[in-house]
Design goal:
This protein has about 475 residues and is α/β, with parallel strands linked by helices. It has one domain. Helices cover about 45% and strands about 10% of the residues. The chain is built from 17 helices and 13 strands. The chain has helices at about 1-35, 65-85, 85-100, 130-135, 140-150, 165-185, 195-210, 225-235, 240-250, 255-265, 270-295, 300-305, 315-320, 330-345, 345-355, 385-390, 445-455; strands at about 40, 50, 60, 115-120, 155-160, 190-195, 215-220, 360-365, 395, 420, 430-435, 475, 480-485. The strands form 3 sheets. An 8-stranded mixed β-sheet has the order 5-1-6-7-8-11-12-13, sandwiched between helices. The radius of gyration is 26 Å and the shape is globular.
């Protein structure tokens, strides 16, 4: 009897050993039947996501935004100015504080990080990570939505150091694409590139091609660069009363009492008075701002050079490097390569379309931009300019329209409020325009998130407006509920 029991147990153990193999065969069979491509979500710039000495007991946020220390520095600057009777000394204290906040973000003359910076990595499918399964907003909301709406193991998320050379990041994208293809059994992936992820995706497509790409969604992305980068690297700092008012008013739009106060201050000319102070600072200390903060921290970040508009590139190099081009030859060479990449972007994407890769461009407008650069009167989504996000559509300045007499090349591409004309966009038939949506959007549980899933899974002729539910021009409320723009 004991021998019989032993034999039964042995057979049972052998069968148990083969269960994983049987399960694997079943999974492979399901993958062959699956018609939903895996998705790779490439996030945008995340200032708060980088960490010094990541993963060690000494880890600390790369941006040292310690409020008490900032307040202390402000008081120190004031006291320095009072006791030395020298505003230059006071401003040196302010700039020193600003540099201390951002110094760990600094890059060297080759575009490499000066400090040991890291961030969470997600090499496996996103459903393996608890934090990704519980995201609420932006890219995190997109990831969570895809985890729940798409087949298991079909959602991947790329978190990366956005300061690095896009061609370096393209290697990370390629590795994740290959993992998704291998693990899901599909031969292609869908890519969702958000904000700065647009530039990184262009680098990937340039370096590795698009043979493994089924569909590419440019969501509030930088695939055509960003005006803010052009202005920053060309030295075009400017603060106007209107831009400052528009920006502050948008921040308090849901706080009636504060909004009333802001409007009152604007009407009595308080913002014009304030900009006299900012004009004085820029006129007298712009070079110090660049030399002591912007150049050492930001101007060696290669992605920013990829975002610079072609027509501004030589001006930007002359402003940032001056006669020191020999000392910065490595960085300039890499920046030149990025500019060449961007010059070839349109032909590349057209080739993708001709070869059957489906694309969609989603851009937002009706929010003011940070009021610190010359072209901050562009319409945008609060972070990036609609002009570049849309692939160079004709866009009225914030708060204005193109005019009652404006005649578009194709009337169907003019927004109902006559603010955006897609006739001049690179890919008008594949471009969606959403009024009022926040940058990137995609918050979990929102209709915008449902729109993303539709973009990823729609099986039919893929163009902007293919669904009556999601027409080419839409309006979003503060909850990212979408409706037809009429």
């Amino acid at each position: 009897m004991k021998k019989l029991i032993s034999v039964i147990l042995a057979i049972s153990m052998i069968m148990l050993m083969f269960i994983p193999a049987f399960a694997k065969v079943g999974e492979e069979h399901n993958h062959e039947e699956c018609s939903t491509y895996p998705v790779i979500i490439i996030r945008g710039m995340d200032f708060g996501g980088l960490t010094v000495d990541y993963g060690t007991e000494n880890s600390t946020p790369a941006i040292n935004a310690d409020v008490p220390e900032i307040i202390k520095a402000v008081f120190k600057a004031i006291l320095t100015g009072i006791f030395t009777f020298n505003i230059d000394n006071a401003f040196d204290v302010v700039l020193g504080c600003a540099y201390d906040i951002f110094k760990y973000m600094s890059m060297d003359e080759n575009g490499d990080s000066l400090y040991n910076i890291g961030q969470p990595k997600y090499p496996e499918s996103a459903d393996n990570y608890e934090d990704l399964c519980n995201g609420d907003w932006g890219e995190f909301g997109m990831v969570r939505t895809c985890i729940e709406k798409l087949p298991d193991g079909h959602t991947y998320y790329l978190n990366y150091d956005w300061r690095l050379d896009p061609f370096v990041v393209s290697d990370e994208i390629n590795a994740l694409v290959n993992s998704a293809v291998e693990e899901t059994g599909h031969d292609k992936v869908n890519i969702v590139c958000c904000s700065m992820g647009g530039l990184m995706t262009v680098a990937y497509l340039t370096e590795y091609g698009y043979e493994k790409v089924n569909r590419c969604l440019f969501m509030s992305s930088t695939f055509c660069g960003a005006q803010v980068a052009s202005d920053l690297l060309c030295g075009r700092l400017e603060i106007t009363a209107d831009n400052l008012y528009n920006f502050l008013a948008s921040l308090v739009s849901e706080q009636p009492a504060v909004e009333f106060l802001i409007n009152g201050l604007y009407k009595i000319g308080a913002f014009k008075g304030l900009t006299k102070i900012t004009d004085f600072v820029i006129d007298n200390y712009k070079q110090d701002i660049y030399d002591k903060v912007l150049k050492p921290v930001f101007c060696n970040m290669l992605p920013l050079w990829g975002l610079v508009q072609t027509e501004d590139y030589e001006t930007a190099k002359a402003f940032v490097f001056g006669n020191n081009t020999d000392e910065n030859v490595s960085l300039i060479s890499k920046a030149d390569k990025l500019q060449e990449m961007m010059k070839g972007r349109t032909e590349l994407i057209n080739n993708m379309i001709d070869d059957g890769v489906e694309i969609a461009v989603v851009a937002h407008y009706d929010a003011p931009l940070a009021p610190v650069y010359e072209n901050a009167d562009f319409n945008g989504d609060g972070t990036l300019e609609t002009y570049q996000m849309s692939g160079y559509a004709t866009v009225a300045k914030y708060g204005e329209t193109l005019g009652d007499d404006y005649v578009p090349a194709n009337p169907k591409y003019l927004s109902p409020d006559k603010v955006v004309d897609l006739s001049t966009a690179l890919f008008p038939e594949y471009t969606y325009i959403i009024k009022g949506a926040t940058h990137v959007g995609g918050n979990y549980g929102s209709e915008y998130a449902d729109f993303l899933i539709w973009l990823l899974t729609f099986d039919g002729e893929f163009y902007a407006g293919a669904s009556e539910r999601y027409p080419q021009f839409m309006v979003s409320d503060s909850d990212l509920t979408l409706s037809k723009f009429e």
